[in-house]
Amino acid sequence: MFELSLKQLLHSITAMMLYDTDSTLLVQGACLKYFPYAIPDVLSVFDGKELSNILVELISNVPKDRLTKQKMMCVNDLVHSALFKIPECRHILLPMICAQVRPLLEKKDEMELCIKIISDIMVTLYNRGIGATHNDISELMLSILRTIIQCVVHLERCNPLVGNVVAMMISVLRQMTPYHYNQYISNFVTKTDLLDFIMEILLVFRDLVSKAVYPTDWNEMIMLQNSIILKALRHFSVTIRDRFTNPFEYQVWNNFFHCAIAFLTQDALQLENFSQNKRNKIILRYKDMRRETGFEIRAMWFNLG
Fold it and tell me: Which residue numbers delimit the Dedicator of cytokinesis TPR repeats region domain (predicted)?
C-alpha cells in the first residue's frame, strides 16, 4: 500500500512538471533542486529501475526553454547519485542525459554546466566498481561525440572553456575500444557522411597539435592527449585504407599525411629537448610516439602502391 502511494506521489510530481504557467515555476524549480537529495531514501523502499524511469519522465516533462539551468543542475546531481552507479539504472538515465545535453551544446547554452556533466560522467565510467560500462560508452559516443568535436571546431581559442571541451572530447576517445571505433564508423549512413567526419577529425587533431590548447608546462595532459590522438589516428588510418582507396579520395589521404606529420613534428614530442629524467619517464609511459607515428605513416605510404 505504501509503495503504491509513493508511486502515485512520484507520478503526480512528474505530471506537474508539464505545466508552463508562472504559478508553478517556483514549485517546479524546487522539485528539480531537491528531488535528487531524496534518491537514497526512496531507493531504500523503491525499485531502482522504476525510479530511474520516473526521473527520466520528470526531466523530460519540463517544457522546452523553461528552467533550463535548474534542469541541468538536477541532471548533474543525478550523475552523482547512487542510481547512476547501478548499470541497469544508468542504462535508463544516460540516453535522457545525452538528449538534454546535446541541443544545449549545439546552441552553446549552459556550456559550462554541460561540460561538467559529461566530464563527470566520463570520470565515473573510468572508475572501477560500477559494473560494465561498454554500452554506456557506446551511448555517449553515438549520441554526442560528433557534437563535442564540432564544439572544439567552432569554439574560439580565447574562450576560457576551450581546454575543458578538448578534455571532454579526449576523455570520450580515451574510453573507446576497437569495438567502439568500429561501431562508430559503421554508424555512418553514407560514404560521404563518413568522409566528412574523417576530414573533420583530422583537421581537429592537426589543429590541436599545431596550436596547443594547454600551457607547455602541462606536460602530462599534453602527453595523454597525444597518446589518445595517436590511438585514434591508427583506427582512422584503417578506415581510410578500407573505404577511400578505391575509388581514391585524394583529399582525405592528403589530410591524413599532413595531420600525422604535424603530430610527429610537434614541439611536445621532441624528447631531446627534455632532461634525461623527464625523457625516461615519457618513454616509460608513452614510448617514443614519433617512432610509432612514423610506422603508421610508412604503412599508409606503402598502401598507396
Answer: 2-305
pTM more than 0.85: yes
- Taking the C-alpha atoms of residue 100 and residue 16, their distance in angstroms, rounded to an integer, is 19
Contact 60, 16 (CB under 8 A): no
Alpha-carbon separation of residue 153 from 166, 171, 202, 207, 208 (angstroms): 10, 17, 11, 9, 10
Query: Domain coordinates of the chain in residue numbers?
Result: 1-7+46-59+68-178, 188-304
Reported as a single tens digit per residue, the pLDDT across 241-295 is 999 999 999 999 999 999 999 999 999 999 898 899 989 999 999 999 999 999 9
Is 173 in contact with 228 (CB distance < 8 Å)? yes
| Residue 2 pLDDT | 76
Residue 269 buriedness (CB in 10 A; 0-12 / 13-18 / 19+): buried
Alpha helices in the chain (DSSP H): 2-16, 25-43, 48-61, 68-79, 87-107, 111-126, 134-154, 162-175, 178-186, 191-210, 219-243, 250-265, 276-286, 289-303
Can you spell out the DSSP letters for 41-74? Answer: HHHTTS-HHHHHHHHHHHHHHSPTTSSHHHHHHH
Give the span between the Cα atoms of 173 and 181, in whole angstroms.
Answer: 9
